């Protein structure tokens, strides 16, 4: 069950961001942003990672409430109608969203909050929270990205084709974001993210 925590202040959403900090990490499917985020959280347990809500099925090893909150499409649509999401988007036939009140509560308490979300959601955050820091993770090349997506062996050929078309569109949007980091060497990319967060 997705926790919804009350905001402990009458501050507006944008005012909350002056107390804590919101960082958005995005990039195309297969670029390695999830792996980077996991390593970042292991190194820095003081970060608050906002667990997204999704309608897709869990992948092997994923835990409900830790990897994602896995819910039905009808429940997701109900939460959208109730304005429970800070941002939400449809990707590869599934919905993804960020719980609003939980994130604002953490920012209001002074935490550094990190989101790992898709491009459409990241654009929503940039529009409503201009003070949020946005980081776009790029692959070293499109061929390498395709290789990574195929190596996961989790998608049909049709799903892979959809992801690659979407990835090409997303990479074109990299310049919209404050910082671009190429995930060629994993350790280098992780160090660059740390430098951005803790400079």
UniProtKB/TrEMBL annotation:
GO terms for molecular function: GMP kinase activity. Residues 20-198 form the Guanylate kinase-like domain. Pfam families: Guanylate_kin (PF00625). ATP binds at residues 27-34. It is an enzyme of class 2 (transferase). It is found in: Cytoplasm. It catalyses: GMP + ATP = GDP + ADP. InterPro entries: GK/Ca_channel_bsu (IPR008145), Guanylate_kin-like_dom (IPR008144), Guanylate_kinase (IPR017665), Guanylate_kinase_CS (IPR020590), P-loop_NTPase (IPR027417). It comes from the Bacteria. Its EC number is 2.7.4.8. Keywords: ATP-binding, Cytoplasm, Kinase, Nucleotide-binding, Transferase. SUPFAM superfamilies: P-loop containing nucleoside triphosphate hydrolases. HAMAP family: Guanylate_kinase. Belongs to the guanylate kinase family. PANTHER family: GUANYLATE KINASE (PTHR23117:SF13), GUANYLATE KINASE-RELATED (PTHR23117). Essential for recycling GMP and indirectly, cGMP. This is Guanylate kinase. It comes from Nostoc flagelliforme FACHB-838.
């Amino acid at each position: 069950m997705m926790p919804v925590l009350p905001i402990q202040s009458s501050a507006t959403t944008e005012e909350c961001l002056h107390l804590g900090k919101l960082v958005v990490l995005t990039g195309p499917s297969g670029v390695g942003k999830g792996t980077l985020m996991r390593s970042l959280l292991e190194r820095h347990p003081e970060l608050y990672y906002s667990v997204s809500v999704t309608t897709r099925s869990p992948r092997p090893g994923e835990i409900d409430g830790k990897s994602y909150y896995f819910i039905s499409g009808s429940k997701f649509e109900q939460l959208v109608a109730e304005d429970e999401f800070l941002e939400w988007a449809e990707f590869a036939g599934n919905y993804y969203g960020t719980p609003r009140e939980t994130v604002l509560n953490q920012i209001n308490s002074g935490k550094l909050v990190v989101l790992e979300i898709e491009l459409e959601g990241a654009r929503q955050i940039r529009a409503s929270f201009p003070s949020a820091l946005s980081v776009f993770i790029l692959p070293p090349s499109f061929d390498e990205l395709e290789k990574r997506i195929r190596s996961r062996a989790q998608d049909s050929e049709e799903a892979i084709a959809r992801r690659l078309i979407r990835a090409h569109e997303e990479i074109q949007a990299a310049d919209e974001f404050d910082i671009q980091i190429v995930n060629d060497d994993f350790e280098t990319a992780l160090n660059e993210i740390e430098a951005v967060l803790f400079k």
